[in-house]
Amino acid sequence: MELISKETISCLPPEVKTNKFIDLLESNIQIEKLNTSFHGNIYLLVDRGVYSASESFAAFAKVSHFATLIGTSTGGDGLCYSPIFFVLPNSKLVIRLADSMGINLDGTPNAETHTKPDIYIDFSKYKNNEELIDYLLENLIDHSH
């Protein structure tokens, strides 16, 4: 991981630019491309129910161009590390929250702006999943492979 100055990213929330927050850590993960015989396109259906770990996968798919995201914006909050736990001293209530704030490539906080699909479709206008998938297969999905 490498420290990055907050001044280099213009879209950060104003509160992050204060001295109450440390500089940013850049995390680079190398993923080797698998040697596979599959040569088709991959489509990932997303909506606000895509959150946390599934958000991490959707964001990875979008940034790496591994898949085309179809749907509406995700629920966000998946670009951070493991949650932390602490106990309130009087009630002994256990609190769980993220230990960091994941930032999209454009500098916006993922928990607030989420991951936007490549192709926007409002799933709610379809009666069921079968109708939606039929529409996608007939109108959006590239059948050239």
Commentary on this structure:
This protein is of the alpha/beta class and 145 residues long. The chain has helices spanning 53-64, 110-113, 129-139; strands at residues 2-4, 24-26, 43-46, 68-71, 83-87, 94-98, 119-120. The protein has a 3-stranded parallel sheet, with helices on one face. A two-stranded antiparallel sheet has the order 1-2. The model has no long low-confidence stretch (mean pLDDT 86).
Can you count the beta strands? 7
Helix content: 10-25%
Order of helices and strands: EEEHEEEHEH
| Total DSSP helices | 3
| Lateral arrangement of strands in the main beta sheet | 3-4-7
Return the average pLDDT rounded to an integer.
86
Shape: globular
Largest sheet: 3 strands, parallel
Structural class: alpha/beta
> How many whole angstroms does the radius of gyration measure?
19 Å
Low-confidence residue ranges:
none
Distance between the termini: 39 Å
- How much β-strand is present in the residues? 15-25%
Provide the descriptors you would attach to this structure in a database record.
145 residues; alpha/beta; 3-stranded parallel sheet; two-stranded antiparallel ribbon; 7 strands; 19% helix
Provide a quick synopsis of the model.
With 145 residues, the protein is an alpha/beta fold. The chain contains 3 helices and 7 strands; from the N terminus they run E-E-E-H-E-E-E-H-E-H.
Walk me through the topology.
Layout: E1 2-4, E2 24-26, E3 43-46, H1 53-64, E4 68-71, E5 83-87, E6 94-98, H2 110-113, E7 119-120, H3 129-139
